[in-house]
Inverse folding.
């Protein structure tokens, strides 16, 4: 679990590192903070109370599979918990996104994902939030 205070700052610093490395091929390459912190190939799930394009800013700077969850669309929520549930960015949907990413890598089977959907009471037939 990692908390990002600013996806734009992480992306800006990563672009600076990329720029530095591109123009100084003879020098030791630098590594951006986001690449260092999210090193490896374990799937990364970014969930935000803002649009999914925001965390997507860092996707190209890490090597791991990346899934962004966000509040794309128009909400009808009276509480933050209801907003997160409606937009599928709450803890249960984050777990499902992580399991799905692991399933796509062959590390978890479809049954595990289906069990999580049932356990958390997620509705497979619900309209995507950005279409609702």
């Amino acid at each position: 679990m990692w908390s990002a205070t600013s996806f734009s700052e992480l992306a800006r610093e990563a672009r600076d590192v990329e720029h530095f490395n591109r123009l100084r091929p003879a020098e030791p390459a630098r590594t951006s903070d986001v690449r260092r912190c999210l090193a490896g190939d374990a799937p990364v799930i970014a969930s935000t109370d803002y649009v999914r394009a925001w965390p997507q800013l860092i996707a190209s700077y890490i090597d791991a599979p990346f899934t962004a969850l966000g509040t794309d669309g128009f909400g009808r929520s009276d509480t933050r918990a209801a907003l997160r549930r409606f937009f599928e960015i709450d803890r249960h949907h984050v777990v499902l996104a992580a399991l799905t990413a692991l399933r796509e890598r062959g590390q978890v089977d479809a049954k595990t994902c289906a069990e999580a959907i049932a356990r958390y009471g997620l509705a497979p037939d619900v309209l995507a939030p950005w279409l609702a």
